[in-house]
């Protein structure tokens, strides 16, 4: 099924057409560097990306973080690298689309944490004169684009759960 207006859609060849207008590419172009700047910090906005595993035991929590944090950070940076390298592409392969999905998810989680987005706030929205309005618009856009990626990936799966 061809989805009209879709930003990302699977082609008959099995790759993905990336149909982003220049203005959207320009916004997306700025985001990976912003996330990369905070990924190796202790910024509280990263809590959703690195949730605590041992809340009740600080010693175990520290040991856990020492074991996995570097690998998790490297994987997130790798997805950001792919997004940056392919931001002007018109076609992506499945591995690149999956990297985009991961990067979009990470960007949205951090921005949502910074904005303190709750279900109520998401449903109600933010007034245009709120200083958070531009960031909230980016947050909503990232969620919509993430949905576009998932729909594009799903185009290759039949209802029985197997690939076409």
Helix and strand layout, with pairings?
Layout: E1 8-10, E2 16-18, H1 22-39, H2 58-86, E3 91-92, H3 94-115, H4 119-124, H5 133-154
Antiparallel strand pairs: 1-2, 2-3
Describe this structure in words.
There is one protein chain. The chain has 5 helices and 3 strands. The chain is mainly α. The protein has one domain (8-154).
Structure in a nutshell:
The protein is mainly alpha-helical. It has one domain (8-154).
C-alpha termini separation: 12 Å
Helix content: 55-70%
Proportion in β-strands? under 5%
Structural class: mainly alpha
Query: What is the total domain count?
Result: 1
Arithmetic mean of pLDDT: 91
Strand elements, count: 3
Principal-axis shape equals globular
Radius of gyration: 18 Å
Enumerate how many helices there are, as a single number.
5
The SSE order reads: EEHHEHHH
The main β sheet shows up as: 3 strands, antiparallel
State the low-pLDDT regions, or none: none
The order of strands across the largest sheet is: 1-2-3
Keywords:
mainly alpha, single chain, 164 residues, 5% strand
């Amino acid at each position: 099924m061809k989805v009209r207006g879709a930003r990302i859609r699977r082609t008959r060849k099995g790759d993905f057409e990336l149909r982003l207008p220049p203005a959207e590419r320009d916004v997306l172009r700025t985001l990976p560097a912003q996330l990369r700047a905070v990924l190796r910090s202790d910024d509280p906005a990263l809590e959703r990306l690195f949730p605590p595993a041992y809340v009740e035991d600080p010693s175990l929590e520290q040991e856990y973080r020492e074991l996995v944090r570097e690998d998790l950070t490297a994987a997130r940076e790798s997805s950001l690298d792919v997004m940056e390298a392919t931001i002007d592409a018109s076609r992506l392969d499945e591995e690149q689309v999956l990297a985009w999905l991961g990067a979009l998810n990470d960007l949205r989680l951090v921005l949502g944490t910074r904005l303190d987005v709750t279900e109520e706030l998401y449903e109600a929205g933010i007034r245009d004169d709120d200083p958070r309005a531009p960031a909230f618009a980016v947050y909503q856009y990232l969620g919509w684009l993430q949905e576009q990626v998932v729909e594009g990936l799903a185009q290759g799966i039949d209802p029985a759960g197997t690939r076409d």
